[in-house]
Amino acid sequence: MPKAAGSPGLQRPFQQVVPQTGAGALARVDELEAELMAEIDGTSALRKKIVGLQSDMSSLREKVNGLERQEQQSKRSAEAAEARIKELDETVQAVTAKLENRGSHGR
């Protein structure tokens, strides 16, 4: 097939793109212009959606990071609480042992 004039890679005849009659050519140009404008509008809408999704993703990342920080803080708090409970338990056991020793010596 011959290549279209002015388009070295286009493999279809030029008359398929734009009819050769004057009125038909203008009508086809108008159709192509409308198609192009629709494509541009669609592309613009997609870009807006992409920007919105990127913003949403960024917000979600921030939330996830915040939750991870909270989780780490909770783990540290839980570990500290467990250590304090162990200390208090050891203290109670020591005091109990001393009281028991006093009780057995006093008899």
TrEMBL record:
Region (Disordered): 63-82
Source species, domain of life: Eukaryota
Name by which UniProt lists this protein: Uncharacterized protein
Organism of this sequence: Cercospora zeae-maydis SCOH1-5
Classification lineage: Eukaryota, Fungi, Dikarya, Ascomycota, Pezizomycotina
